[in-house]
Amino acid sequence: MPKTPHYDAPSVMDQGSIWILVAAPSIWAAHFLVSYWVAAVYCAKSTTGALGGLMEPRWIAVWLGLACIAVIAWLGVIAVRRYGGVFVIFEEITESSERGRDKFIGHVALLLCVLSVVAIVFTIIPGLVFNEC
Amino acid sequence: MLSGCDGRHNWMAGAGEESAQVKTLFIVLMIGAGVIWSAVVGAAIYAHKRGAHPNLEREARQFVIWGGAVLPTVLVGALLVWGLIILRDITADDGDLTVRVDGERWWWRVIYETPEGDVITANEIRLPIGQRALFRLTADDVIHSFWVPALGGKMDMIPGRETTLTLTPQTLGSWGGLCAEFCGGAHALMRFDAIVMEPEAFDTWLAEQAEPAKLSADNPGFEVFQAEGCGACHTIRGTDAQGPVGPDLTHLASRDKLGAGMWDMTPTNMARWITDTHEMKPDIDMPPYPHLNGARLDTLVDFLMRLE
C-alpha cells in the first residue's frame, strides 16, 4: 500500500489545515470565559460581598491574557511562515492551487489573530479600571 | 419623544457632578460621531466623483486599513477606558452620607444611615447640596433601576444583591426620580422626588425625620387607622403601628408627593388614595377601603395630613 502523500494528511497547524483559522478566536473566547468565571466565583465567595476587591482576579485575567497573546503571536508567525499569509493582499488570489488556498488561509488567520489580540486587551481593561466587584 | 429631555427629568440639566460627566461623554461622542460620519460620507462622495484610479489602489487600501480598522480600534479603546473610569467614579464605595434604598413594587424604602442609627422614610429623597451621597441599592422581589436623570447615572436594583451609586448634587431644587427598569403593572407610576437642600436645612430635616410621630394616644384618626388594620402594614414610629410591609408613614405629610412621587400631598388626593387605591395605582398590594366615607374618612385623612 503506497504511503499517503504529505498534502493529503496535513498536520494540525500546517499547510492545508484550516485549524489555524479557528485557533485565535477560540483562545479569545476561552480567555473571556475563564476571566468571567474567575471574577464571578471570586466575587461570590468574597467576604465583603458585592464590594469585594477585584485585585486578585484582575491579575489572573492580565497574566492569562498575556499568555494568550503570546500564543496568538506564535499563531501569527505560523500564518506568515507556513501559510505565506500577509496583512494586505494587493493582488487577487485567482489561482486554484494549494499555494493560493494557503495564502488566503494565512491572510485570514493573520487578521483573526489581530482581532483576537484586540478583543483580549478589551477584556482585560475593565478589570484594570475597576477595583471592586 | 423629547418631552423627557425637559425640566426636572432632564438628564442634560447637569444638576449633579455625575450627570455633568455623562453629559460631557455624550457631547464628545456626538461630535466625534458627526465628524466620522461626515468624513465617511465625504470620502464616498469624493470617490464617486473622481471615479476609479487603479494606480492609486495601494494608497486606497492603506487608507481603508488605517481609517477603517486601526483608527476605530484606537478610538473605541479610548472611549471604553473613559466610559469605564466614569462608571468607576459614579459607583465608588464612599460618600459624605450613606442612603440605602430598597426597591419595592412599586415604591421606594429609603433609609438614611446616621451615627445615631437608621432614619427610615419612603418615596422621597433629600440630599445636601455639594455633598457626595453614596446609595446602597437593593430590591425586594423584582429588578428595579434607580435613576435621577438630572443628578447622575442610573443603577439596577437587584434582589439579593447590593449595588452602589453616588450622586453629588450641584443645583438646589426638586428633581424627578424614577424606576428605569420595567418591573410590572405600576412601573410607570414608581417615581420619587429628589430634593436638593442647603446642608443646614438638610440636617434639620433629617433630625425631624428621626423623631417619632407627635400625636396623643387617644387621637380619633389613629383609632380609625388601627381599626381599619392600616398598622398591620404601615409603621408610625412612636405608636403601636409597626407594620413593616408598606411605606413608613411617621412623617408622611412632610413629603411633597403621594403614591410614590405621583400626586400632590393634598387631603383630596389622600381621601381618594384610601378609597380608590387601585384607580390611582393599579396592581399595588394596598387594598382600597371604599366603605370608608363621611366623617370617618375625614378623620383619618386629617390624621394622616398631620403626620409632619
From TrEMBL, chain A:
A GO molecular-function annotation: methyltransferase activity
Top-level lineage group: Bacteria
KW Methyltransferase (keyword) present: yes
Record keywords, A-Z: Membrane, Methyltransferase, Transferase, Transmembrane, Transmembrane helix
GO BP terms, alphabetized: methylation
Record has Membrane as a keyword: yes
Transmembrane intervals: 18-39, 60-84, 104-130
Protein name: Protein-S-isoprenylcysteine O-methyltransferase Ste14
Protein source organism: Sagittula marina
UniProtKB/TrEMBL annotation, chain B:
Localization (cell): Membrane
GO annotation terms (biological process): ATP synthesis coupled electron transport
InterPro entries membership: CcO_II, CcO_II-like_C, Copper_CuA, Cupredoxin, Cyt_c-like_dom, Cyt_c-like_dom_sf
Catalytic activity: 4 Fe(II)-[cytochrome c] + O2 + 8 H(+)(in) = 4 Fe(III)-[cytochrome c] + 2 H2O + 4 H(+)(out)
Matches recorded under SUPFAM superfamilies: Cupredoxins, Cytochrome c
Keywords: Copper, Electron transport, Heme, Iron, Membrane, Metal-binding, Transmembrane, Transmembrane helix, Transport
GO cellular component assignments: membrane
Recorded superkingdom: Bacteria
Cytochrome oxidase subunit II copper A binding domain ranges (all copies): 94-208
Transmembrane segments: 25-47, 63-87
Coiled-coil boundaries: none
Keyword Kinase included in the entry's annotation: no
Residue ranges annotated for the Cytochrome c domain, each copy included: 216-308
A single GO molecular function term of this UniProt record: cytochrome-c oxidase activity
UniProt keyword annotation of Electron transport present: yes
Predominant cellular place of this UniProt entry's protein: membrane
Family: Belongs to the cytochrome c oxidase subunit 2 family.
Name of the molecule in the record: Cytochrome c oxidase subunit 2
Organism: Sagittula marina
